[in-house]
Every structure is written in structure tokens, then in C-alpha cells.
Amino acid sequence: MDYRDKLLALSTKYQGDYDKMLSAIEKKENIEEEFYVKHSSNYLTLLDELYSSKLKRTYKPPIVFYYYGDISLLEEKFILGVIGTRCPTSYQMEMTETLVKEVIKKSNKKVVVLSGMAKGIDQIAMKSAMESDGKVISIIASGIDAPYPLNNQGIYDYCKSGKGLVISEHPLNYTARKEDFLFRNRLIASLSKSIFVPGGKNKSGTSSTVRMSLEYGKEILSLPCNVTGDDLTNSLIQDGAKCVLSSNDILESLSAWY
Fold it and tell me: Which residue positions in the chain have pLDDT lower than 50?
């Protein structure tokens, strides 16, 4: 058995838990035969030649990650991360759809939309890109064969096609824990060129992803919203995030990274 088989079995045994896998590697732990199981998904290990250089620069880069779809999308130059609240207002929903569709159209489909496939802003951004025949990347916190939430099966299927990509650090039908979503967000931060926040709360997973993105030196783009609510976006603008008034603001940010 080669190193890929052993790392895959290790990931299967520990359900993709980074710290447990690293500890097992350091201890040169033997892996029981029962964990050498067949996987339907594709996978890459940290030692593989095709492993993305962007992921290698990530905090705690995945030792093994699983995927379906077009893995070359990770190397695209114009990857726009879109993150935000699971309960957007009608204004935030409308503007997310409008801006994403305009960005896809104006860039001649060169912009790739990346998100976490959660309900709310993630879902709207990805569906808008799909309706524009654009490319999408979804990074999920559940097992690669157990997309969550279930009502995003359409997004998952699109990502599995040649027009998209879905990746996960967790194998098979693993059920995500709360901490998996927060840990997953570091990948969204590291893989995106710029991060667009159409809506969110000041204490949320969105705000933690913004902090991670800033640590990676990424530009934060923020949609101004009603000042009467606890909305993260206005706070971000006040702190120096780029205020998004049109799709051109997003495109300018992405092109600055060219």
C-alpha cells in the first residue's frame, strides 16, 4: 500500500479530524484493515502533486480532502467568496442575486463564486451563479457524500458537474458538528481572492470568516444595509471594508488581485 492509501484510511478512521490525524501520523500509528474502504469520491492528499498551492498556504492545510467536479477551479484567478447570514432580508436577497448575476455576466463567466452551501446568502449567491451558467465552488463541513442542508441538493449536483466543484475534509456520510463549520471557514477565506459580505451579524460565523480573511490579506467587500439592525456589513464598512454600491466595485477588487 502506498502513502495515499494509508492517508485515506487514516482520514476514514478519524472522520477527517485534522488534529487526530496529525497526532496519529506523528505517533506512526498503525491503521486497522477495516478502515481501508472504497470511496466513490475523488480525493487528494497533502503530499500529492496536484494538491492546490493555495490550500498548502492555509492554516492547518487538509491532510486529505475529498471532491467531486472540476478540481482545476481551485486555480482560477478570480474566485469571489460570498458569505453571510442564513436569514437575509428581502433587500439582501435581492441585491445578492442582482450583483452576483451582473458580476458573472460582466466578467464573461471568468469569476468563480465560492461559498459554503448554507441556506441564506450562500444559497442565493450560488443559485444566482448557476442561473447565469457560471462556475461555483462549494466547501462543505459535512461528509462529501452527505450534503447539508438537504434542500441544497441542486447546488451539490451542479458542483459535482463539470461546471462546479464541491470539496470536504470529511469522508463518506459524516455528520458535521458545529465546530466543523467554523473550522471549514478557513478554507473559504484562503481560497477566495476577495470576500463579499451582503449581510451578517456582528457575532457570527460570518464575522469569524471575515477575521480569517483579513489574516490572509484578503479584501473585504460589504453591502451597506439598514442602520437599525445588528448588521455586520455597516460595521465592516466603518472599519475600512470596500463599500459595494454596484457590481463594478466587486469586479475592481478582483482585478486588483490579477
Answer: 257-258
β pairing state of 194-199 and 164-168: unpaired
The sign of the CA dihedral 148, 150, 155, 161 is: positive
Q: Which residues contact 9 (CB under 8 A, 6 or more apart)?
A: 31, 35, 36, 37
CA distances from 106 to 132, 162, 197 (A): 11, 22, 20
Do strands 164-168 and 64-69 pair parallel, antiparallel, or not at all (unpaired)?
Answer: antiparallel
CA distance 184 to 180: 6
**61 preceded by a cis bond (ω within 30 of 0):** no
C-alpha cell of residue 204: 457570527
Q: What cell numbers appear for 65 in the block?
A: 480532502
Residues 6+ apart with CB under 8 A from 141: 116, 148, 168, 170, 176, 180, 181, 183, 184
**C-alpha cell of 84?**
453571510
DSSP state of 248: H
pLDDT at 230: 62
Candidates 18, 12, 16; CA nearest to 31 is 12
In this prediction, residue 1 carries a pLDDT of 62
Task: Supply 239's cell numbers.
Answer: 472599519
pTM more than 0.70: yes
d(CA 198, CA 10): 39
